[in-house]
Design brief:
The protein has 113 residues and is of the alpha+beta class. It has one domain. The chain contains four helices and three strands; from the N terminus they run ααβββαα. A hairpin with a 4-residue loop joins strand 2 and strand 3.
Amino acid sequence: MEADEDRPDCPSWCLTTAEEHAEDDPGTWLHEGPRFGLLRTWWLEGATNAFTATVEDAEEGVELAADDLRQLATDALDAAIWLDRQARTSPAEHGVSVVELVRRAHERSTRSA
């Protein structure tokens, strides 16, 4: 199938449908990542890879109480940590848990004759 040849090898966390990927610009793929409260994460895969986040359904003039602001701050920190981690890992490691990455590193480093 020729269409499958044009489909990206998406990371496990990608929420983008095949139909949405079909609308991506040639040579790039826009992967939607996990959501953190009001924040949606994205990976633009292409010549210049970029991890970003957008605010979902942002309305101008939305009022937030103190608890809402604390939750937004917590979600923003979680999203930033996730974005940083994805940007530092290879595409094959995107979405792999930190525990799994540590296990793999331990297996590689403790092999002896």
